[in-house]
Design a protein that fits this description.
Layout: H1 11-18, E1 25-27, E2 34-35, E3 41-43, H2 46-56, H3 60-69, E4 72-76, H4 83-94, E5 101-105, E6 132-133, H5 138-147, E7 154-155, E8 163-168, H6 188-204, E9 214-219, H7 224-228, H8 231-236, H9 242-245, H10 250-267, H11 271-278, H12 288-307, H13 310-320, H14 327-339, H15 352-361, H16 366-375, E10 381-382, E11 392-399, H17 408-414, H18 424-438, E12 441-449, H19 455-465, E13 470-472
């Protein structure tokens, strides 16, 4: 396995800087890649595990060991399986004999992640369609069937009562947003105003907006960040929302998954959980002096977390190492310090990531805390990633702009037309996300479009939901 490590993305440079692999242990703990000269181990990242597995699948010995240990392999939500890994299964197991019995459970219309394999097709696979819908009432299932007539779903309880309704904001006469990612959407304040008005109307019709009954699923970032208290972070990543909602940015990932986990456990006096989040490489407490130093550093971190900006928290962590920064953050901070903390005449030559980091460091850290609560589902709001596979009694779906690859008005326009070849992936990404969102509720579904809809888009909605369900808000 050692000879494969340098072939993994970015690992040759890490190994060179660390002085080679030599006899270092290779481990996978917190999922952050790490290699340093003064340490006797290499830590693999989350993505490295998949890449390494794909590489090892080329070797018959590994495949034999794999089959011996896993004679039956069941993959849930297969459409979101890493494409390289899915292809390796096809090449090495589906195309020949001696592989495990593999079951792929999922639906290619529910592929909403960028690196997923999508529809799995192979001559050696037997397709078994599941036509029963045990979640949603008849009114919602009928909408899903009109969206997707090739896969008709049967309702579990035909007598169950529910509702669907679509609301749009075309009658609003103010100035809408402009720009490539926000064009024709409402300003954030107006999103909030329209959302509150619709919530009041739905409450009068029997909706209950407590978090365990109703989810407000927002396929827009014009108003979501403002509602949840992390608008500064959203502004930093304008047009690239997956970087913070999916924690694809290494700073967001570290602050949410590690720092927040450590602080929450410490505040709750769950010290075992705290050290688990810190990782095994964190210096142990061996004396009273160590305990005092730990308490001092953690109390300082809690104070900075509540009252200062992200930069102040990062500067403290660089000194304390509790928790230690990841390799990516170490490199980012060194690059940031080299560029200089303050802007100047030479600022135009500073790379985009330095500008983004400078803006991120200036944001109050409490926005990270708000983002963490949102991502973990501790609010009535969510994005596409917070509800995958989930279900709720009621869903209010708020649809607008702010994503770099989603424009639901255009998707609705494409339905029933000849989609240009270069727009097919765009259409499928938008359609799949829309379908997944509409299939979450058990009883009630309402849609609020904050972006302006064209007549063609409204016509598609009328065909899917029924013209009597379309309302101007």
């Amino acid at each position: 396995m050692r000879c494969l490590i340098p072939q993994l993305p970015k690992w040759q440079d890490r190994i060179d800087e660390a002085g080679g692999i030599a006899t270092r242990r290779i481990e996978y703990e917190l999922g952050h890649p790490r290699a340093r000269k003064d340490e006797d181990y290499l830590s693999l990242g989350h993505d490295d595990v998949l890449s390494l597995t794909v590489a090892l699948m080329e070797h018959a010995k590994f495949r034999n060991l794999f089959v011996a240990r896993y004679p039956i392999l069941l993959i849930d939500e297969y459409q979101d399986t890493n494409e390289d890994f899915a292809n390796a299964l096809k090449i090495h197991f589906l195309c020949g004999e001696g592989g495990p019995l593999i079951g792929f459970f999922g639906d290619h219309w529910q592929k909403i992640y960028g690196d997923g394999c999508g529809k799995m097709e192979h001559d050696n696979l037997v397709v078994i369609d599941m036509n029963a819908n045990f979640r949603s009432v008849k009114a919602i299932v009928e909408v899903l069937n009109r969206m997707r007539p090739e896969l008709p779903q049967d309702v579990n309880d035909p007598e169950a009562v529910g509702s669907v309704a679509v609301y749009h904001t075309n009658n609003w006469r103010g100035t809408r947003l402009t720009g490539p990612h926000f064009k024709d959407d409402l300003p954030a304040d107006e999103v909030h105003t329209h959302l509150e008005a619709l919530k009041a109307h739905l409450i009068s019709e029997g909706w209950d907006f407590v978090a365990d009954k109703t989810k407000i699923l927002m396929l827009t970032h014009a108003g979501l960040a403002k509602e949840q208290g992390y608008s500064g972070i959203a502004d930093v990543f304008t047009g690239h929302n997956d970087l913070f909602t999916k924690k694809e940015d290494p700073y967001i990932e570290f602050l949410v998954d590690t720092v927040e986990a450590v602080c929450t456990a410490y505040e709750g006096k769950r010290f075992g959980e705290m050290f688990q989040a810190l990782g095994r490489r964190t210096p142990a407490i061996r004396s009273t002096a160590d305990k005092i130093a730990w308490a001092s550093d953690m109390n300082t971190l809690l104070r900075l977390r509540s009252n200062e900006n992200i930069g102040a928290v990062l500067d403290h962590l660089k000194k304390s190492g509790r928790p230690r920064l990841t390799e990516a953050l170490d490199g980012g901070e060194r690059e940031f310090e080299k560029a200089g903390h303050a802007g100047g005449a030479e600022e135009s030559v500073v790379e985009d990531r330095i500008e983004r980091l400078r803006k991120l460091r200036a944001i109050p850290y409490c926005e990270i805390m708000a983002l963490d609560r949102f991502i973990d589902g501790h609010t009535p709001f969510s994005t596409k990633h917070g509800v995958k596979g989930a279900e709720f009694e009621n869903v209010l779906l708020v649809i607008g702009r702010g994503w770099n690859k989603y424009d639901f008005n255009r998707m609705l326009e494409y339905v029933g037309s000849n989609i240009p070849a270069d727009k097919q992936k765009f259409f499928e990404d938008n359609r799949n996300l829309f379908y997944v969102a509409c299939s979450r509720p058990r009883k009630r579904l309402a849609l609020l479009f904050t972006q302006k809809l064209t007549p063609a888009a409204i016509a598609t909605l009328s065909n899917w939901f029924g013209s009597n369900t379309i309302h101007a808000l």
